[in-house]
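#lab-general

N.A. 3:47 PM
ok so I finally got the sequence cleaned up, no stray characters, all 343 residues accounted for. can someone with queue access submit it? mine expired

B.Y. 3:52 PM
send it over

N.A. 3:53 PM
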Amino acid sequence: MSAQTAPLVEVEGLVKHYRLSGKRARGAEVEVVHAVDGVDLQVKKGGALALVGESGCGKSTIAKALVGLVEPTSGRVRIGGHDVVPVTRNDLAARRRVQLVSQNPWSALNRARSLRHILAQPVRLHGGVSDRAAVNQRCTELLAMVGLPTDYLSRRPRDLSGGELQRVTIARALATGPDVLVLDEPTASLDVSVKATIVNLLADLRVELDLTYVLITHELDIARHVADDVAVMYLGEVVESGPIEKVFTAPEHPYSRALLDAAPTELVVGRLSGGGLTGEVPSAIDVPTGCRFHTRCPVAVDDCSHESPALRGRPEGRAAACLRLDELLGDISSSTMTGRNPA
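B.Y. 4:20 PM
back already:
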């Protein structure tokens, strides 16, 4: 693959397991939480990928791995051809190429400091700017990028609304001149009336600054407005991926379809004839054998409980992991998917 066509963000075989505190053992083995198991992702420069799924599916763990906050148990995370971890002296400067925008701006910002200090710190550390006038100029530019006036530099986080705080977290992320923004539920803590303005801001910045986005969200309507592609996750694995319009209008995996059917807005037409989701997400400590979704799947058969499906490539850049995929694809249009729920 040439440098011109190589993806900017590469996740290869990512596995992240957490040992339980207290080292509780079952037999001879120490119990672990299977947060992420064998995930592969790619995002081209200027693209936007959304990771969607229920809480506990591994989305935020991937976000932390992308910015180097957690070290993978195995696998690789690369930004622009550089491994995120482990970090060598040569790769350390590359860390500024990827920045995180967290879901809670109140906890992400130092409430005791002015916005001038909050923005100036990364400008000095990563931008190599030390002259006070130049630092102030850069801070002013950053506020302008996110639609805030210059006089806000003297304010503190406690003086701002939730939407304004999230704009500041975005401005701080932009201070290092990144290529990639990892957006971890960037609108989850905002009022409905404010969400649209943040989504529009992110869309504008992506074009103006040629940014690449990895969006973590449980809000499927937000994903559809921000992202080009989507990866649907369940219990640490990707079960379906592809262009977001293709997946959202014609999902191929039973979990994707059930997830979209459960959305508060109409993102997909029709429902599984076998019923929607039942029960709770299984424990990430004792993951089900075979297909991890089979305990809740309305179309599962006996083979699903002991055979793990591989993520299979599909036309139009799509992929899905289901043992009954070929059979079910013929039934989706007529909504005649049937089966048993082993739960």
